[in-house]
Amino acid sequence: MSGGPPDLLGWRWPHLLLLARLWFLAPPTGQAAALCRVSGGVLGIHWSSTLSLGWFPLASGQGGATCWETCCLRPGCGAVWSVGGRCVLLGCSRTDGCGISALPQPHQESLGLLQLLAKGPARMKRRNPRHAGRRSFITMETLRAAPTAPSSSSLPPTAQQNLSLPANGSSDGVPVLPPQNATVDPTASSNYTAEAPPPAVRELVVSAGESVEVTLPRNEVELNAYVVPTPQPGSSYAFDWQLKTHPRDYSAQVEGNKGQTLKLSELTVGLYEFEVTVTDGDSAFGRGYVNVTVRPEPRVNKPPVATVSPKDQEISLPISSTVIDGSQSTDDDKVVTWHWEEVKGPLREEKVSADTPILTLTNLVPGNYTFSLTVTDSDGATDSTQATLSVNKAKDYKPVANAGPNQAIQLPRNSITLYGNQSTDDHDNLSYEWSLSPESKDKVVEMQGVRTPILQLSAMQEGDYTFQLTVTDLAGQQDTSKVIVIVQPENNQPPVADAGPEKELTLPVDETTLDGSKSSDDQKIATYHWTKTSGPDGVKINNADKAVATVTGLEVGEYHFTLMVADDRKLESSDTVKVIVREEKDQPPVARVLSSPPVSLPVRTAALDGSRSSDDKGGLSFLWSRDDSSPAAGDVLNNSDHQAVLFLGNLVEGKYSFTLQVTDSKGQSSSDRGTVEVRPDPWQRDLVELVLEVSVSQVSQRQRDLLLRQVGVLLGVLDGDIIVREIGAFDEHSTRLVFLVSGGPGRPPLSGRSVTLSLRSKLRKQKNDFLIFKAQRVDTVVCQLNCSGHGECDSFTRKCVCRPFWMENFLRAELGEAESNCEWSVLYVTIVSFLIVVAVATLIWSVVCCCNRRRSKVRRSKSRYKILEGEEQEVMELQLPRITRLKPAPGPASSALMHSDSDLDSDEGQERGHLLRPQNGSLNNGQGPPRTKKPREELL
Length: 940
Description:
Blueprint: E1 55-62, H1 67-73, E2 79-83, E3 86-92, E4 113-115, E5 124-126, E6 144-146, E7 182-183, H2 186-189, E8 192-194, E9 202-203, E10 205-207, E11 212-215, E12 221-224, E13 226-228, E14 238-245, E15 253-255, E16 261-265, E17 270-279, E18 284-295, E19 312-316, E20 322-325, E21 335-344, E22 353-354, E23 358-361, E24 367-377, E25 382-392, E26 407-410, E27 416-419, E28 431-436, E29 446-448, E30 454-458, E31 463-472, E32 478-488, E33 503-506, E34 512-515, E35 525-534, E36 540-542, E37 548-552, E38 557-567, E39 572-582, E40 599-600, E41 606-609, E42 621-626, E43 635-636, E44 645-649, E45 654-663, E46 669-679, E47 688-692, H3 701-715, E48 722-731, E49 734-741, H4 752-765, E50 775-780, E51 791-794, E52 799-802, E53 806-807, H5 810-815, E54 824-825, H6 826-859, H7 870-878, H8 903-911, H9 935-939
Parallel strand pairs: 9-18, 11-18, 19-25, 26-32, 33-39, 40-46
Antiparallel strand pairs: 1-3, 2-3, 2-4, 5-8, 6-7, 10-13, 12-16, 14-17, 15-16, 17-18, 20-23, 21-22, 21-24, 24-25, 27-30, 28-31, 29-30, 31-32, 34-37, 35-38, 36-37, 38-39, 41-44, 42-45, 43-44, 45-46, 47-49, 47-50, 48-49, 51-52, 53-54
Keywords: Cell membrane, Glycoprotein, Membrane, Repeat, Signal, Transmembrane, Transmembrane helix
Subcellular location: Cell membrane
Main location: membrane
């Protein structure tokens, strides 16, 4: 039913719903709200029920978990009704109480919720089945005549839930509160009978005392449990202590966990929470809790140690700053504060003070300083030390003048530059002044830059010049330096002609160059001129008046060309060069191979370059051939063995050697050799081989990427970390995938062995259905089985080939790790097998012997005995038992033998064997017939 509840005062009588009310013996004043959080029965009611018999609504609001708590805490509330998410509190307006009568069958779809606040509910059974369609509620007044129920009991589990009565009226009863004797309404008793409640369990008040705190080195505690009420005379409570919370690594000793007093010893630092449970059979129960806190032993503080570094230091201006380190101060706990104070120093505007571990000093002035450092630890203890600092004044040194080295020039050159910038001063602030020394006053010279570090001199004449450089610093300190410049008279030498080296040409080359640029003069060469002095006619010299000339139209023969050079003073010199021109001659080709640098697997391609082979005419043909010592594996790509560059593929580990033969147009040939070294894969042992049950032609790029992503998920790595080295056909119906797993930037790849074991384990757990293709095999490319150190791994079968006297542990190979091994020694296996066979045979023989022995005992008849005389008894005791059984002497059967049924006599007969049997069975009335005794019988 939707919407809010209808007006309660307007309900009609024909559809009255029986309401259960709870009378409180006393208002809940002074009680905690927690006392009202009790469980009661639930009952469905009809929306059209009419409040009667004095019931009226107290309040109507939102329902919830505290609906019954509100009624419990309100003195005027007699019943609570929770329906449709709303809470209705009911009170009684009659002074003589509000009665309750039976109701017809309620409407199933509009059931409400009635919560009775009862501490001791009772269950009512229906007496007469003919009243199955009716409901009745029993209040406190109607139960006054009933026997008093126990004051404390627990509701059945179904009564603790919010249940509605079914429409067929099959509920056994409703819970009510019987706090005292009550009489049952006759109309209600005709339908229900009160069922005796189960025995009530008394609740005990248990206290384990206040929480205990101890401090090491004390590590023993005694806990006592107190129970209210005390046990009845002649009875006692049972105690059970349980440790609920404890430190991680505790080693406490517990004594008396089943008694009233619990003793704890060897406690460690931490919190211990104990629960004590007290019971008295099944009639009383209670719990108590107590905490034990063990604190660490208090630390004995040690004062800190103040340390400064350096303790004494000295600086000189212009350095005006420094630092003093106090961070190396130590304490048994920690240093909390550092405080620096300037104890002594030059007079300044402000003294130094700081609260940092490192003292930074700036803008220091000359003088002596003393600084004090005080450190404080976490417990307030302090320690102090001092550091001294000396600041010296800046020292100004005299400058050093440097006018440079003495120099010489020769006319007609009459100018030079002098450099004084090598002069130095400690402050780099110098002034310069150049001048002629007194001994050179009469010399003629032009000077520029006399107050700069660089002096320009010109218009000098033959003779010696002395120049003086004076440098001055800021303090006025000076220094001088002198330099001498010698001007030598002019001395012109004739030039030296150089026409270059002899040349030899071969037709069809008919031109060459003549180089005279290496000709020299002490001053300058003014002119060049080339002429032909001998040789065939018809040649032409281009640029004959320059240092480099070109000669064309040469023919077969020998030429001589002369170079004439002259300087400015018309001094001349000549040189001749010879040029020989020969007829054309075909030269054989020259083969040249550029070897390929070494490659490492998985790179399987390489190239040998023969393009640098040459011939004077050109038109070469190439032929590459493999040497006999080279590996047979490897293919020549694109028919490149007839080209200048040889391309190779599918190479394997080894050193390949190829010979290149080049042939020119006239059949002349030449050869050269090139090599390619293929090194093994550095990560070969980390390669993993995965054989998939799918033809390689059916694997697409998208499926390959998905497969790598799935393998990455199984291995717990990114698919980008899986590096595929090879993917190809394993056989006609399977594909072989070779890969390795990267270990990260700058790290080697993961071990192939570990990757194989991990992937194999994951595929076994996933039942090989995780991958898009079924995996036939997962293994390393290189067989890495150690064969237990007693064999070698066959790289083809991936099985161990055991050494002599060793064999495979088939139990581990088939049932364990499924790896081939050579763990068992043939000798030990043979010995163990022999021992097992012997043990089994011995066991079978023992069983057979036992069966035969039992069968013979069953067939054995009762032994007959006679009483021996004392002398005969002594002889029997001294006689050793014999293994050989004596044959009894035949004699007449006697019926007058004495029979003994005692166990003792039977045991003695069995121990002595059959030696007494010849004496028994031949007596007649206790006496045997006289006969001659044999020696053996005499001994017996």
